[in-house]
């Protein structure tokens, strides 16, 4: 068969574009392929699996899924930094066993009831201040603090392969959300620059803010009241409240993400993708599942992944690089 | 000066486009002009008032701002309809004075503490059911119920001039949100079709939903717990929680919108627009401010509008038409 050049050239160009690797930091294999195949399927207008752009919603856990959560989630380090900095103004905090543990650097002491403990202690350094004041403190901390193992700022201990997934999905009309146990206000400070995710697409744990007008100026104040913990069942509950419908793709790394993985992938009228990042790389990052240092236990999630056909990423095998650069 | 036709034609075309009236249902005057001037200003890349697309957030109250709230907000009629329909399953409701008032059609009896009373009574017919079941009930009600004065479905007692504002803003890169005392789940059922506003951009009053897995199927159940009333100070608080930053345009009609009008227009680093729909048209709609029938009291909002330079729309003077068609 003979083709004219003007027909062939666009075809070659198209083939090149289609061949271009959207996930260059992923090694070839079933994990990478599952993401590529899913996106190809739901964006093919001629397929019965096609999903309209407006329904292409993807949700991502943050700690352990988009950035490193070990030895402790970075927000705990921020809280420790802030508690030390603000302690002179709050002498009563010295009586609090959680504050005492933090000041000793004894993060393991928060481990027993870790999510509640962590979030409560974090709240202490996050309340009775304006969002602007809080955001300035997070920004200052991010500019100076460094990860103890990798000696780089926490907003650079983010996973390059997952950044590529975020971009790949957005390039195909997906709206990408964070749905994390981490503080909503905390993540909103850096997520736009770091992940390209705007504030209204950041869902996390939060307490009430209070509005009042002071000297003719509207002000908001962060409080500790009505704490909502965006973990486990809280994740699908928050997705319903903030987004109002079922995502079609969900990315997590721990048992805390299992409920939202189920909510995304079971009884969904659209095709769906569930993916778990399994931390198997003790050298380049950390290796943990049943026994994490502080956060990210993965026990029931693995058999659930097997049962429901979720992709389990083997960090050591599947990721060519871990961090950017 | 002589211009070649190929230069002149695009210029004429551009002038025609620029002259095309984006708000055809508005009579000429300062109200209409304030909206047009604001949009021109913040979208002019050469102006120091320019606002990047990502910051173009506009918030709209619903009851009395986008649709008719008189004689009672339509959601109250839905609640009455549902309470009657579900009463056989909940005989205990008969003891409730609010239910008794509803069944008698005595909406005025809910007036004293109206927002709390209305929302509580609404909650009764909204809880202990799945979002899907609830949405189906709203859809069925919308298809059959009619407004007592206008004899048209409630999703057609919407204000044509405000639909044009929604479109005009979206055509200029604005993200349009509803921020209403009405039920978030209730509005999400029809707002996409009716206003072109997707579920994640609907903020309203809400209670907790609970997630659980039943027979391997994820389910959510609406409850009455942790009611959040999205009115007065709750509006800026919800805007912060759901959107995470200050809007630059705010549209309301009652004192319940005053806090979010202040939050939008005071101490905003960007130019901003505040607008109040004043119900002055007893013939084509209703005339009320200090003494509404059930909802939409406007007393402190009028001097605040004067003080802060918000646009006050005189419905009778400023709107050429009220409802679509």
Tell me the layout of helices and strands:
Two copies of one chain form a homodimer.
Chain A (H helix, E strand, L loop, with lengths): L4 H15 L10 H13 L14 E4 L13 H13 L10 H7 L10 H11 L6 H14 L15 H12 L3 E9 H12 L6 E4 L3 E6 L2 E6 L11 H9 L6 E4 L5 H8 L7 E8 L6 E2 L12 H8 L2 E4 H4 L7
Parallel strand pairs in A: 1-2, 1-6, 2-3, 6-7, 7-9
Antiparallel strand pairs in A: 4-5, 7-8
Q: So, CATH architecture of the largest domain in chain A?
A: 3-Layer(aba) Sandwich
CATH class of the largest domain in chain A: Alpha Beta
Assembly classification: homodimer
> Regions of chain A with pLDDT < 50 over 5+ consecutive residues?
1-8
How would you portray this structure in words?
Two copies of one chain form a homodimer. Chain A is an alpha/beta fold and 325 residues long. Chain A folds into two domains: 25-71 and 156-318, HAD superfamily/HAD-like (Rossmann fold), CATH 3.40.50; 74-144, no CATH class. Chain A is 39% helix and 14% strand. The first copy, chain A, has twelve helices and nine strands. In chain A, helix 10 (258-265) links the parallel strand 6 and strand 7. Chain A is globular. Chain A binds chain B through residues 54, 131, 184, 188, 198-200, 202, 206, 208-213, 216-218, 220, 226, 233-234, 236-237, 240-245, 259, 262-263, 266-267, and chain B through 54, 131, 184, 188, 198-200, 202, 206, 208-213, 216-218, 220, 226, 233-234, 236-237, 240-245, 259, 262-263, 266-267.
Structure in a nutshell:
The structure is a homodimer of 325-residue chains. Chain A has helices at 5-19, 30-42, 74-86, 97-103, 114-124, 131-144, 160-171, 184-195, 234-242, 258-265, 301-308, 315-318, and strands at 57-60, 175-183, 202-205, 209-214, 217-222, 249-252, 273-280, 287-288, 311-314. Chain A has 325 residues and is α/β, with parallel strands linked by helices.
């Amino acid at each position: 068969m003979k083709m004219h050049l003007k027909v062939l050239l666009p075809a070659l160009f198209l083939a090149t574009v289609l061949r271009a690797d959207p996930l260059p930091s992923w090694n070839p294999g079933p994990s990478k392929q599952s993401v590529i195949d899913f996106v190809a399927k739901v964006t093919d207008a001629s397929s019965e699996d096609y999903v309209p752009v407006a329904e292409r919603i993807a949700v991502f856990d943050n700690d352990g899924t988009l950035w490193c959560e070990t030895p402790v989630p970075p927000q705990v380090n921020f809280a420790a930094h802030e508690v030390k900095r603000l302690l002179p103004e709050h002498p009563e905090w010295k009586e609090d066993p959680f504050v005492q543990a933090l000041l000793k650097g004894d993060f393991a002491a928060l481990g027993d009831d870790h999510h509640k403990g962590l979030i409560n202690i974090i709240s202490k350094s996050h309340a009775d201040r304006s969002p602007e004041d809080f955001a300035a403190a997070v920004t200052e901390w991010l500019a100076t603090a460094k990860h103890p193992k990798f000696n780089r700022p926490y907003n650079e201990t983010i996973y390059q392969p997952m950044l590529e997934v975020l971009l790949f999905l957005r390039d195909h009309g997906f709206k990408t959300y964070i749905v994390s146990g981490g503080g909503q206000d905390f993540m909103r400070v850096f997520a736009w620059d770091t992940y390209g995710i705007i504030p209204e697409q950041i869902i996390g744990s939060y307490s009430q803010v209070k509005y009042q007008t002071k000297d003719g100026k509207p002000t908001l104040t962060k409080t500790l009241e009505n704490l909502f913990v965006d973990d486990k069942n809280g994740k699908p509950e928050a997705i319903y409240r903030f987004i109002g419908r079922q995502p079609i793709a969900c990315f997590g790394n721990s048992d805390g993400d299992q409920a939202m993985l189920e909510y995304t992938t079971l009884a969904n009228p659209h095709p769906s993708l569930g993916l778990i990042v399994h931390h198997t790389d003790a050298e380049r990052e950390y290796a943990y599942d049943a026994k994490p240092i502080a956060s990210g236990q993965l026990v029931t999630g693995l058999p659930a992944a097997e049962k429901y056909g979720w992709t389990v990423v083997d960090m050591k095998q599947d990721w060519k690089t871990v961090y950017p650069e």
